[in-house]
Amino acid sequence: MIVDDTLVDKLSNLCKLEFDAAGKEAIKKDLTTILNFMEKLNELNTEGVEPLIYINEDINVFREDVVNYPITKEEALSNAPLKNADYIKVPKFVKGTKY
Predict the structure, then answer these.
(1) Lowest-confidence range among 50-54, 66-70, 91-95?
(2) Which CATH number covers residue 24?
(3) What is the extent of the structural domain holding 37?
(4) pTM for this structure?
């Protein structure tokens, strides 16, 4: 595959990205490096190698959903720096909104 300006323009349009001239040259260089690496992988002999679908043999290993160490509401609120009777208070973190 040849990586040229046409390919970079097509990919940038699909990805909704914009590149200046220097950025376009950098992308062409990176894509060429990636494609050369993939070609190198194609040289490997994979005859008789089973495709790897899962890393291990375990499938759908579930555990029992049991609460082991429940804490009370008072214990949960005891370490909170700001709280009221029932909730932990946190500072406002969304900018530009009015509550």
Answers:
(1) 91-95
(2) 1.10.20
(3) 5-42
(4) 0.48
